[in-house]
Design goal:
By secondary structure, the chain is an alpha+beta fold. It is built from 10 helices and 13 strands.
C-alpha cells in the first residue's frame, strides 16, 4: 500500500545507498529526470545533482547517514537532457538492523514557482529603477520650474492676470511633486511593508494638520476634535501621518472658503478591536457612485474626484498593511453636497489614560 502511494504521488522520491547508487526511485522521479528504470540502476546521486549544489548535498547526506532527519531542504537536480529541476523536500534515514543503510528523499518540483518568483523580483527591480529615475529627474525639473516661477512672482511690473497665471502654474507643479511623492511611497509599500507598532493617532493627526496648513498660506485650517494626546493608542506604522495628511489636504483643497472647518470625532467601537476616527469636511462632497471608485488604484479623472485617486490609493494601502480600513460617507447623511465623512478604522490598543470626550483644538 505504501509503495503504491509513493508511485502515485507527483513528488520525486528516491532511496540512496551510502555508495551513492539508488535502490528505489518512483515514477515521478523517472519522468521528471528523464531516465528509464534500467538507467536509474547505473547512475549515482552525483549524476543528477547540479554541480553547484553537490557539495551542499553531500554535507546534508552525511548528516542523514549519521541518523538526522532534515526538512525543508532545497536541492537542484539536473535531468538527463540538462534541464535544471528546482526542488524543496525532506530527507530521512532508512534503518535496517539498527543501522542507517540509505537516505530517503521526498522532493516537490518547484521549478515553475521559483522561475515565477525570480521574474517577479526582476520586474520589481525594474519598476523600482524607473520609479527612482522618475523621482530624481522629474523632481529636479519641478524644482527648476518652481524657482523660475517664484522669481517671476517677485516682479512688481507683472499684471494681475499674469500673476494669477503664475500662481496657478505653481499649484500645478506642486501637484506634480505630490504625485511623485505618492508614487514613490506606494512603490516602497509594495516592496516592503513597515513593521506595525503601538502609536498615538492624535500625535499623527496634529502633526499632519500643521504640515497641511503650511501648504495653504491663503487658508486657515479650523480643526475641531475630541482627540487628546495620549488618550488612545493604535497598531500602525510611521506612514500613519501620511494617512491623515492626505485626508486633511483634500479637505483644504476642495473647500473654497478661506476658513476650512474639519471635525474629527473618535470613539472605540464596543465589542470590536477598532478605534473609529471620522474626518468630516465641508468640501464639495463625493457622489454615491464615486465613493468606492476613489479608493481604486487608478481613479477615473472626473471633475468631482480629480486628484483624489492616487492619494487615497496610498491611504488605503497603508491602512490595510496593519489591519485598518477606510470608507467614505456623507457628512450629512443623504446629501453628498454638504461634504464628505472619511471613516478610518484602526486596531485599538488599550491606553493608560481614561477615554475623554472633551473637545481639543489643534492646527
Amino acid at each position: 500500500m505504501i509503495w503504491t502511494l509513493i508511485e502515485g504521488t507527483s513528488d520525486l522520491v528516491h532511496s540512496v545507498r551510502r555508495d551513492g547508487h539508488f535502490d528505489f526511485v518512483n515514477r515521478a522521479w523517472l519522468n521528471t529526470l528523464e531516465y528509464s528504470d534500467e538507467e536509474a540502476l547505473d547512475i549515482t546521486i552525483a549524476n543528477i545533482i547540479f554541480p553547484g549544489s553537490l557539495k551542499e548535498y553531500q554535507a546534508r547526506a552525511s548528516r542523514v547517514f549519521a541518523g538526522e532527519s532534515l526538512t525543508n531542504v532545497e536541492t537542484t537536480f539536473i535531468s538527463k537532457s540538462g534541464i535544471l529541476i528546482l526542488t524543496e523536500g525532506n530527507l530521512f534515514p532508512r534503518h535496517e538492523d539498527g543501522k542507517v543503510v540509505a537516505l530517503q528523499g521526498f522532493y516537490r518540483n518547484v521549478t515553475d514557482r521559483k522561475k515565477s518568483e525570480e521574474e517577479l523580483r526582476e520586474q520589481r527591480a525594474r519598476t523600482e529603477f524607473f520609479v527612482d529615475l522618475m523621482t530624481h529627474d522629474i523632481t529636479n525639473i519641478n524644482q527648476e520650474v518652481l524657482s523660475t516661477f517664484e522669481i517671476l512672482l517677485h516682479d512688481s511690473t507683472l499684471s494681475v492676470p499674469m500673476t494669477n497665471l503664475l500662481k496657478e502654474g505653481l499649484r500645478e507643479v506642486e501637484r506634480s511633486s505630490n504625485l511623485i511623492a505618492n508614487v514613490k511611497k506606494i512603490s516602497q509599500l509594495y516592496a516592503e511593508t513597515p513593521a506595525a507598532k503601538k502609536m498615538d493617532p492624535a500625535e499623527a493627526i496634529f502633526s499632519a494638520a500643521k504640515d497641511v496648513e503650511s501648504s495653504f498660506p491663503d487658508k486657515t485650517l479650523k480643526l475641531k476634535t475630541n482627540f487628546l494626546l495620549g488618550q488612545y493608542h493604535v497598531l500602525a506604522d510611521d506612514y500613519l501621518k501620511d494617512v491623515f495628511q492626505s485626508l486633511l489636504h483634500n479637505a483644504m483643497k476642495f473647500d473654497e472658503r478661506r476658513d476650512v472647518e474639519v471635525e474629527i470625532d473618535t470613539n472605540v467601537i464596543r465589542h470590536t478591536p477598532f478605534l473609529r476616527i471620522q474626518i468630516k469636511d465641508n468640501g464639495r462632497g463625493i457622489p454615491d457612485e464615486e465613493k468606492e471608485e476613489i479608493f481604486a488604484r487608478i481613479a477615473h479623472r472626473r471633475g468631482g474626484i480629480l486628484g483624489l485617486g492616487l492619494g487615497l490609493t496610498l491611504v488605503k494601502q497603508i491602512l490595510e498593511n496593519y489591519g485598518g480600513q477606510i470608507m467614505v460617507k456623507d457628512r450629512v447623511e443623504g446629501n453628498h453636497k454638504k461634504g464628505a465623512n472619511f471613516v478610518v478604522l484602526l486596531r485599538y490598543e488599550q491606553s493608560s489614560k481614561a477615554d475623554n470626550s472633551s473637545d481639543h483644538r489643534g492646527n
